[in-house]
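User: I'm writing a tutorial on reading structure tokens. Could you give me a worked example: one chain, its sequence, then its tokens, then a sentence or two explaining what the tokens reveal?
Assistant: Sure. Here is the example chain.
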Amino acid sequence: MLNYLIVFLISMVPIIELRGAIPVAIGMGLDPIWSYIICIVGNMLPVPIIFFFARKVLLWGKDKKYIGKFFTFCVEKGEKGGKKLQEKAGKGLFIALMLFVGIPIPGTGAWTGTLAASFLNMKFKQSIIAVMLGVLIAGVIMGVASMGIFGGIGALFAPKA
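And here are its predicted structure tokens:
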């Protein structure tokens, strides 16, 4: 039970999120299905808070003495991510956000995607659904990769020595 709690907490950490938590769960020998569910819940739990409050807090803190540089970095990252999504997506912003979150590389997870959605003034429900679908996709990719299926497929098609 403690290991599932650890995985749950790891999935809530920005940048690491479920992309890091699923490999940890598989490495611990935890049940893949339960790990997947727990990681999704942990990754999605902060999303509404990020959507409604992160932008306001970051904009407030941009000009503060000790936290200003970090908050400015976060605002710029959110704005940059939002602009990239908008440029590439046009009217397909929902799909672009889902794919942005679904690609399991650092900096493209639920935290950044939700922050970008809030900077783009996307509707809450639309943002949450796109981010959730992206998290589901990323979870499947990380689960498959963590269980070695990609390695097995690669071995099938690798040239024989």
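What the tokens reveal: The chain has nine helices and no strands. The chain has a mean pLDDT of 88.
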